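Exercise: predict the fold of this chain.
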Amino acid sequence: MKLIKFGNLLVIGLTLSVATLGCKHRPQNVTPLPGQRAGTVGDAGQGGLIGNGPGTGGEGASATPQGNPGEWANAARDEQKFQADTVHFDYDSSVVKSSEQSKVADVADYLKGNPASGLEIQGHCDERGTDEYNRALGERRALALREELIGLGVGGERIMTVSFGRSRPIDTGHSEAAHARNRRGMFVLLTK
């Protein structure tokens, strides 16, 4: 009798252990933040600024000290120059889709032809998820675009990144089409 009770308790304990430890969801195709292991989803980044601190881009933003922010602090900002080159992302992803590569290449070509110009990359998300998660995802999106530009020959010291998470939607709707428009990376031209 005691053996049967012990066996039942053992089965229940093993079942609970497997259910709690063995079924964790791991996001795939996530660009790691500097200083993190690949495949982990963390906070807004090591050393990142959250809130209204200097260089964060305003309320709800998270900035990563990428590039040389001090050099570009007083630069003129042109938010319209690369508006047509806004890159859109899949849900819960920071992977730059092949269909968006030509937009990144257009921005890289302009920057290579204008060496006195810099760039701010803004990462944005849709309304789903927590503020913290969306700031981290927006940051991963901005960093993924930064890496693409560096791979195309643009100096990393000319590229700043900032994440707005879900705080600056361009479409306030709640449909999948609105969400798709809000999952984006935007380029702001900086000129000294």
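Check your answer against the key: The chain has one domain: 31-191.
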